């Protein structure tokens, strides 16, 4: 019965099961470029790459107090994980661990003062990675707990959410779908301190987001504004999408990942259902050429820019969802394979045009912010590269790819994801962030 409904679903959304992981995933250029990027950040004071010039692919650097700062060090930790345990090479592993640690130091001052608001969750990634390797590293433990406290301090019990952006009128309480990604730091800090209030805050925020950001068809609003004194929704709008009622692709991807991650942390079925619904919508909206546009509802004329970063984030979200299906008891093997097939197709289709050997970034064709003046599109983006690396790690850990640099690496339909990857709790290194 499940098989039948899955076959129908697959027919509906029209993707084939023949896609294999892109050959570029484990190309030596990945480690080479990351190494160069990590060794070239400006120092005194340290600055971090966010996106590239659209003309020559050179990284543009920004001060540490910005939401994307953690991605380069986190990508170094991801390559540490890859070379430490997935594709063993101790020289490379040590090199990337050292780089991840070194690059994190510029983020430590942000615990005392940051203007990133809710994005402290993103800033916490490299410290969470460090704690997974060395629990006795007090600098990293303190960073995780402090970032979690900063996010918890932004919780308003009347609204039921953590505040995303600060506003001049404090009663105008703005929450963006991206905020789902920052909830993970609350679970990470709970694991270190035993403070369950942090989990309660994460669940309240996710419940409200489910109610007010996600539309009945599984699509999503970017921004929901609440009145902080009454808790009422006063506005639903976009900031980075095409229109207030459109679906900004990267926001939808954050939602797929965010709700799959809520299920991973809580085992509450409502989050699994929401992740499935948002993932189905995402897949159903990808055009037949496979290229993810920056907003699913943006008109075709003038030609709408792609957002390869949204495709990479959604890929990892779908792989997480696949692992959650596999972890059900009894294991939902057909559901797991459905999502991992979709993830591999999304990854392949979008790597095919965005892979950019001659640029400093791994990928091109990212859209940072198209409604900005001037629009910022057709760039490399550090988080696109980060989730590309993460996708490569996940596919190996799920047995769907191996470390050899070959386009003939094919998923093994006979061995779908197993329950061995259901929780990060027993690992000596971290595989999700
Ligand atoms: C890896 O793949 C790239 C093309 O994607 C190719 O240029 C390179 O020679 C390959 N390297 C190895 C070691 O197979
Ligand atoms: C291991 O990594 C080092 C450093 O990145 C590299 O020079 C070397 O070629 C790698 N060894 C193998 C067998 O891939
Ligand atoms: C401890 O963690 C910090 C921050 O993650 C890092 O910069 C530092 O190098 C680590 N220290 C050691 C001794 O590993
Ligand atoms: C748990 O975390 C919340 C939110 O940061 C804080 O208000 C509370 O004091 C903490 N409880 C303990 C026992 O530390
Ligand atoms: C929120 O509601 C209060 C009380 O009704 C009102 O004074 C305030 O202007 C409202 N704020 C916004 C942003 O609507
Ligand atoms: C958004 O609203 C406008 C105006 O009400 C409408 O024309 C358009 O079809 C709507 N778009 C979507 C994606 O619902
Ligand atoms: C298995 O996963 C698919 C896709 O998410 C879902 O439609 C189906 O209901 C799941 N089956 C079970 C038994 O949970
Ligand atoms: C990708 O970006 C390049 C410019 O860097 C552009 O020429 C090309 O059309 C873009 N491809 C897609 C599929 O959007
Ligand atoms: C992409 O960005 C360029 C440069 O800012 C801008 O001229 C162009 O209008 C943007 N493309 C679209 C379709 O918005
Ligand atoms: C790894 O990939 C290569 C190239 O596709 C293949 O020949 C080999 O059998 C694969 N190894 C495993 C363990 O799957």
Short description:
Residues 406-423 have a biased composition (Low complexity). Helices cover 47% and strands 7% of the residues.
Provide keyphrases for this structure.
single chain, Glycosyltransferase, two-stranded antiparallel sheet, binds 2-acetamido-2-deoxy-beta-D-glucopyranose, disordered N terminus, 47% helix, mainly alpha, 433 residues, 3-stranded antiparallel β-sheet, signal
Provide an overview of this structure:
This protein is mainly alpha-helical and 433 residues long. The chain is 47% helix and 7% strand. The protein is built from 13 helices and 7 strands. The radius of gyration is 20 Å and the shape is globular. Residues 1-16 and 406-429 have low confidence and may be disordered. It has a 3-stranded antiparallel beta sheet with strand order 5-6-7, with no helix packed on it. It has a two-stranded antiparallel sheet with strand order 1-2. A hairpin with a 4-residue loop joins β3 (155-156) and β4. It has a single domain, classed as Glycosyltransferase (Alpha/alpha barrel), CATH 1.50.10. α5 (120-133) packs across α7. The longest helix is centred in the C-terminal third of the chain and has 22 residues, at 333-354. The structure holds 2-acetamido-2-deoxy-beta-D-glucopyranose (10 copies). Residues 1-18 form the signal peptide. Keywords: Hydrolase, Signal. Residues 406-433 are annotated as: Disordered. This is D-4,5 unsaturated-glucuronyl hydrolase-like protein. It comes from Heliocybe sulcata.
């Amino acid at each position: 019965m499940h098989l039948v409904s899955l076959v129908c679903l697959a027919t509906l959304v029209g993707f084939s099961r023949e896609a294999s992981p892109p050959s570029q995933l484990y190309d030596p250029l990945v480690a080479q470029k990351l190494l160069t990027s990590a060794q070239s950040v400006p120092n005194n004071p340290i600055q971090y790459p966010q996106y590239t010039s659209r003309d020559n692919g050179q990284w543009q650097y920004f001060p540490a107090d910005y939401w994307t700062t953690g991605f380069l060090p986190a990508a170094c930790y991801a390559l540490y994980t890859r070379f430490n345990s997935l594709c063993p090479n101790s020289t490379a592993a040590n090199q990337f661990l050292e780089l991840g640690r070194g690059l994190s130091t510029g983020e430590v001052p942000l615990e005392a003062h940051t203007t990133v608001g809710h994005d402290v969750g993103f800033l916490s990634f490299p410290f969470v990675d460090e704690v997974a390797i060395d629990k006795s590293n007090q600098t990293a433990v303190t960073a995780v707990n402090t970032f979690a406290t900063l996010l918890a301090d932004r919780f308003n019990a009347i609204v039921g959410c953590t505040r995303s952006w600060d506003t001049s009128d404090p009663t105008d309480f703005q929450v963006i779908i991206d905020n789902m990604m920052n909830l993970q730091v609350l679970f990470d800090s709970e694991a270190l301190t035993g403070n369950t209030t942090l989990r309660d805050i994460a669940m309240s925020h996710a419940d409200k987001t489910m109610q007010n950001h996600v539309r009945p068809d599984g699509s999503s609003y970017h921004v929901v504004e609440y009145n902080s004194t009454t808790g009422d929704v006063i506005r639903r709008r976009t900031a980075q999408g095409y229109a207030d009622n459109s679906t900004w692709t990267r926001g939808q991807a954050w939602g797929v990942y965010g709700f799959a991650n809520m299920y991973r942390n809580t085992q509450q079925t409502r989050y699994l259902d929401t992740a499935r619904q948002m993932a189905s919508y995402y897949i159903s909206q990808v055009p037949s050429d496979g290229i993810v546009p920056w907003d699913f509802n943006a008109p075709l004329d003038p030609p709408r820019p792609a957002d390869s970063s949204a495709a990479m984030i959604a890929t990892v979200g779908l792989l997480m969802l696949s692992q959650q299906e596999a972890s059900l008891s009894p294991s939902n093997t057909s559901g797991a394979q459905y999502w991992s097939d979709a993830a591999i197709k999304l990854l392949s289709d979008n790597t095919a045009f965005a892979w950019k050997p001659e640029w400093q970034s791994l990928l091109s064709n990212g859209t940072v912010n198209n409604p900005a003046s001037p629009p910022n599109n057709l760039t490399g983006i550090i988080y696109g590269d980060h989730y590309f690396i993460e996708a490569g790690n996940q596919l190996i850990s799920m047995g769907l790819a191996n470390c050899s640099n070959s386009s003939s690496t094919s998923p093994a339909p006979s061995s779908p994801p197993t329950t061995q990857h259901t929780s990060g709790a027993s690992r000596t290194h971290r595989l999700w962030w």
